[in-house]
Amino acid sequence: MENLHDKRKVYEKSQLIESEIKQNPIEQFRDWFMAANESPSVSEANAMAVSTVEEDGCPRTRMVLLKEYTYEGFIFYTNYNSRKGKAIEHNHKACLSFFWPGLERQIIIKADLEKIAENLSDGYFHSRPKGSQLGAAVSPQSQKIPNREFLEEKLKELEKEYQNSEVPRPVSWGGYIAKPYEIEFWQGRPNRLHDRIIYQLEDLDWKISRLAP
Question: Whole-structure pTM over 0.90, yes or no?
Fold first, then answer.
């Protein structure tokens, strides 16, 4: 057993105050994301935790890579038949979380998820390295498989089949767009008096509030 009571960090790198923030949370996200993407302390700025609620009522969280963001929402790709895909089919609400400890920043996004257009999924799928395309075609994501060799043998078969041709996008693989209705920005501050600014969508307008830490 290890006592972690004294493992503390002092947060003092920045601040988040109302006079300096953007009125649109996507623009605020853009500013923070660009800072994270340019920071040597952040290895994958677009890595985010995606939490969905499964049919048993329990949330499940996994790390996913953000691939695009617009004023409409945040886009990522996955297997529609995976556990996350089935959870989204059951409950289209999800929570996306970014944590950049080197910048002492966190963003929490509550959103409604929906599939993007098939032609957009096609375009992204064929922009990926061929190995990644084959990997998506090979993997029955989240399903039980007998062993590692099962995947490797299937990969060899598809490498041979598509050696001189384009890999078709599996119909079970594609993108989701998370359309936000609440976005919270968290900035670490000294003495645990952190800054928390929340944007909430009300009648197509974003309302801004400060939350106690």
Answer: yes
